[in-house]
Amino acid sequence: MTIRVLICDELPVIGDGLRTLLDAVPDIDVIGTTDNGMEAIVLVRTARPDVVVTDLHLRTISGLEMIRRLGKEENPPNIVVFTRISDADKTVSDVLHAGASCLLGKDASPQDLVTAIRAAAAGRTVLAPDIAHRLVTWFREQPDTPDCAPHPEVTELTPREREVTQMVARGMSTEEVARALTIGVATVRTHLYRVRTKLGVRDRAQLVSLAFRSGLI
C-alpha cells in the first residue's frame, strides 16, 4: 500500500529536500509541500494524504494550531512532527495532546523519518529517544494506584465500540484491529470516530488515557 504524504515546513529548501528523500522510497508518495499552515489544511481536505509531516513553525498559523484543527476533521490524517525539539516538557505535551502520532527532532536520520511515517500510517507512535526517556521517567514517578474514577460517558459505547477501544488502548493498529475482528479498516475507523465523539477525546493518546482511567483496561 502506498502512503500519501504531505510535507509542511517554513523553509522551502527543507521541504524540497524531504520530498527528494521520500520520493526515493517505493511505498511513499509525496502529494505536495507547503510552508503555509492554512494551505496545508486545504490540501488535506482536497488531496487526502494519509500522513502529514510537519514542522511546528509555519506561515499563517503554527504547526501546532494546524494539528489541532486537522484533529477536528472527520477523517484526520496521521501526523508526524519533524521539528527542532525544545527542552520544555510543555512543548512535547502540547504536540502529543494536539494529536500528533510521532515526534522526531531534525537530527533524526532519514531512516528514522521513513520509519515514523510508516508507523503513523499504521496508527502507531514513534518518539525521539530523549522524548521517550522523559515520558518513561514521568510514568515511573506517578503513584502506583491508577485513577479509576468513573466516566459515565463510557457507558454510552456499544459493545463493539468498547472492544475496538480496548484493542487500540493495548497498542493494536487500525489494520490489526480489523484483522482480529474480521471487519474492514474503514469500519474500524468509523467506530473510532464515533468513540472519540462520544468520549469527547481528540486523538488516540487521549483515548488510551481515558481507557485506562475509566477501567476499560
Automatic annotation (TrEMBL):
The modification 4-aspartylphosphate is found at D55. Residues 4-121 form the Response regulatory domain. Signal peptide: none annotated. It comes from Streptomyces roseoviridis. PANTHER family: TRANSCRIPTIONAL REGULATORY PROTEIN NARL-RELATED, TWO-COMPONENT RESPONSE REGULATOR. The keyword Transcription applies. This is Response regulator. PROSITE patterns: HTH_LUXR_1 (PS00622), HTH_LUXR_2 (PS50043), RESPONSE_REGULATORY (PS50110). Residues 150-215 form the HTH luxR-type domain. CDD domains: LuxR_C_like (cd06170), REC_NarL-like (cd17535). It holds the Pfam family GerE. Keywords: DNA-binding, Phosphoprotein, Transcription, Transcription regulation.
